[in-house]
Amino acid sequence: MFKNIEELIEDSKNYSSVIELMIAIEMEQTGRNREQIWEMMEHNLETMLDSVKKGLAGKKSLTGLTGGDAKLMDDYIKSGKALSGELILGAARDAVAVNEVNAQMGLICATPTAGSAGCLPGVLTSTIKTLDLSHEQQVEFLFVAGAFGLAIANNATISGAEGGCQAEVGSASAMASAALVLAAGGSAEQAGYAIAIVLQNMLGLICDPVAGLVEIPCVHRNAMGASQAMISADMALAGVKTVIPVDEVVNTMYNVGRSLPAAFRETAEGGLAQTPTGRKIMEELFG
């Protein structure tokens, strides 16, 4: 199995695609056959699409801290006034929708974590129509994202408690950007550049959940992650390359995460969690 993104790209040349490489690895590691693995990924896709739909209903979370923003964004898009356009704001909207469902204790698909679960479906759902993606291609989108996500996880971390939000939303955004590049007809090499572009611009992003809950600022950060994934994919497809190789960027993310004080790694002891308002919310909820 590939150890990093460079090896992933190289190994995929021995298969018909990154998709087939990832399926082969899943078959080898799980003992399941191709049909079983495909069906499991279809279930993941159905869960994602359903969570986007539910998130647009405008329901509040159990704490009342989040919920309704996805619907506000949806209404704004429908007004035709969106400055960033329907595609990018649509990705942000759907990312918010998924994370609002997560805050409601609803069913979501962790990609790669629950706190960063909105980026990938946000990017996917907003581009299904633009790229005319079939059901099969949507499932393939997830296999590609999973392959690149696996390479990131093996060389860094996807945990906010270990590496800050750069590791969670950063990794999710990177996975989405890579999958989008290939879905749009780009190469695996371009997908690697898209990941590098995303991550080098998220280095140092802290994890500072208000009251220790995966709501503020987590929900909105997924919107930003989805937006960055879209832009990074476009940059890579345009031919933009990074000077620092993608695996060096991934390793840097890991090293930066290890350097972050504990206050900035999901402990709610720093950042927005320790603002006057953040502390007030904590006291009101937990005394």
TrEMBL record:
<comment type="similarity">
    <text>Belongs to the iron-sulfur dependent L-serine dehydratase family.</text>
</comment>
<keyword id="KW-0312">Gluconeogenesis</keyword>
<dbReference type="GO" id="GO:0003941">
    <property type="term" value="F:L-serine ammonia-lyase activity"/>
</dbReference>
<comment type="pathway">
    <text>Carbohydrate biosynthesis; gluconeogenesis.</text>
</comment>
<protein>
    <recommendedName>
        <fullName>L-serine dehydratase</fullName>
        <ecNumber>4.3.1.17</ecNumber>
    </recommendedName>
</protein>
<dbReference type="Pfam" id="PF03313">
    <property type="entry name" value="SDH_alpha"/>
</dbReference>
<keyword id="KW-0456">Lyase</keyword>
<keyword id="KW-0408">Iron</keyword>
<keyword id="KW-0004">4Fe-4S</keyword>
<dbReference type="InterPro" id="IPR051318">
    <property type="entry name" value="Fe-S_L-Ser"/>
</dbReference>
<feature type="domain" description="Serine dehydratase-like alpha subunit">
    <location>
        <begin position="16"/>
        <end position="273"/>
    </location>
</feature>
<dbReference type="GO" id="GO:0006094">
    <property type="term" value="P:gluconeogenesis"/>
</dbReference>
<dbReference type="GO" id="GO:0046872">
    <property type="term" value="F:metal ion binding"/>
</dbReference>
<keyword id="KW-0479">Metal-binding</keyword>
<dbReference type="InterPro" id="IPR005130">
    <property type="entry name" value="Ser_deHydtase-like_asu"/>
</dbReference>
<keyword id="KW-0411">Iron-sulfur</keyword>
<dbReference type="InterPro" id="IPR004642">
    <property type="entry name" value="Ser_deHydtase_asu"/>
</dbReference>
<dbReference type="GO" id="GO:0051539">
    <property type="term" value="F:4 iron, 4 sulfur cluster binding"/>
</dbReference>
